[in-house]
Amino acid sequence: MFRKLRIAILLTILVVVGGRQLLTESRFSSWKQPLWVTIYPVIAGSAENIQSYTDGLTPESFRQIKTFIGQQAARHGRQLDTPVVIQVARPLTSLPPALPSESFGLSVALWSLKMRWWVWRNGSQPDLAAEDIRMFVLYQNNKPGGLLERSVGIKNGGYGVVNAVASRQLAARNRFVITHELMHILGASDKYDPATGQPVPPDGLANPSKVPLYPQQQAEIMAGRVAISLNRWRQPGNLKDYVIGDATATEIGW
């Protein structure tokens, strides 16, 4: 009897979570109301400058993300007065579970369970409005070579984990990564070759109808780089250098 009761409780939880997820995804794709995004700065280092940097973050620090999404929505014929509202939480000191080295399998499932528990414990503050999406941004000092751990956006969880640098000089790079992972949460797929980083045509190009095709002048947000040729690319410096292409627009409901 106890086993049957436990199974019933688990099934009920799955139904509730699944139903809530369907409603959330439906609201995302409709774009009838503003999406509320909370940036949760996470102090991922012991240096004093990281604490100082995260304490100074405000919604204005991420205004360019809101502007970019509004401009791109209009470019695709969606006149949205306020597509995204961004609020900033107080900095967290608790680190989320480390990302698994694999991208599939049991380790990913285990990480997902641990992450959901961590989000539940850390992803709410009483002075914040109810959000649709939680972006946990791990601020740290720049590492040798500028290489950080990968970032992820989880569509079926409504949250992202972004590795960022606590530096005003690299704030533009941070905003791109946050926006890229936000698009993942909304349903967009990557459009670059994971082995080389090269944008994959046609969907990975900002202007796939350009003649001649190369060099491109801008980057598609889910490709992340400006294609100079079929085998060469460069990193843009600002969100103004990116666009949301037709394929990505379709994936996120535009």
Plain-language structure description:
It is globular, with a radius of gyration of 19 Å. It has helices spanning 2-30, 48-55, 63-75, 106-122, 171-185, 246-251, and strands at 35-43, 84-88, 133-140, 152-154, 159-165, 219-220, 226-227, 233-234, 242-243. The chain is built from six helices and nine strands; from the N terminus they run αβααβαβββαββββα. With 254 residues, it is α/β, with parallel strands linked by helices. A five-stranded mixed β-sheet has the order 2-1-3-5-4.
CATH architecture of the largest domain: 3-Layer(aba) Sandwich
Radius of gyration: 19 Å
Q: Helicity, in percent? A: 25-40%
Count the helices. How many? 6
Contiguous low-pLDDT stretches (5 residues minimum) are 16-20
* Tertiary shape: globular
Described by strand count, sense and barrel closure, the largest sheet is: 5 strands, mixed
The overall pLDDT average reads 90
Give the strand tally: 9
Order of helices and strands: HEHHEHEEEHEEEEH
State the distance separating the first and last CA atoms.
Answer: 49 Å
Count of discrete structural domains:
2
CATH fold call of the largest domain: Collagenase (Catalytic Domain)
Range of strand content: 15-25%
Structural class: alpha/beta
Strand order of the largest sheet: 2-1-3-5-4
Kindly provide the name of the CATH class of the largest domain.
Answer: Alpha Beta
